[in-house]
Amino acid sequence: MVVMMDVYNERSKGRIIRTVANFHGVTTITMDSKDGKLTVIGDFDSSKILTKLKRRWINADMATFGPYDPKKEAAAVEKKRMKERERERLLEASRGNYCLCGPTTQHQICVCNQEPYHQGCIIS
């Protein structure tokens, strides 16, 4: 079972894991705080767990429910990594194409007078 929910800090993550761990039949619990994904594996009643989670965390929604397939999970993780690598590659490529601060080269013209009583230089 995969439940999507907002997790703000490590304290709320710990509370969520302790809440789910109290149910009979739960063998594995993993929590991805960045994506807000709680994965519960085991032989348990999903409606009871979801009801308990929704009672304390209103935004808890069941994303998927079904038998655990490690090959499918690994393929999904690899697909996610590939998308992230592609996004980072495009971001790095776009950084080199333009500059937000204006032109990078500035031309300075210095006109200096060689007269003995002249005290300055004009730079434009």
UniProtKB/TrEMBL annotation:
<feature type="domain" description="HMA">
    <location>
        <begin position="10"/>
        <end position="54"/>
    </location>
</feature>
<dbReference type="InterPro" id="IPR006121">
    <property type="entry name" value="HMA_dom"/>
</dbReference>
<comment type="similarity">
    <text>Belongs to the HIPP family.</text>
</comment>
<keyword id="KW-0449">Lipoprotein</keyword>
<keyword id="KW-0488">Methylation</keyword>
<dbReference type="GO" id="GO:0046872">
    <property type="term" value="F:metal ion binding"/>
</dbReference>
<dbReference type="InterPro" id="IPR051863">
    <property type="entry name" value="HIPP"/>
</dbReference>
<keyword id="KW-0479">Metal-binding</keyword>
<dbReference type="Pfam" id="PF00403">
    <property type="entry name" value="HMA"/>
</dbReference>
<keyword id="KW-0636">Prenylation</keyword>
<protein>
    <recommendedName>
        <fullName>HMA domain-containing protein</fullName>
    </recommendedName>
</protein>
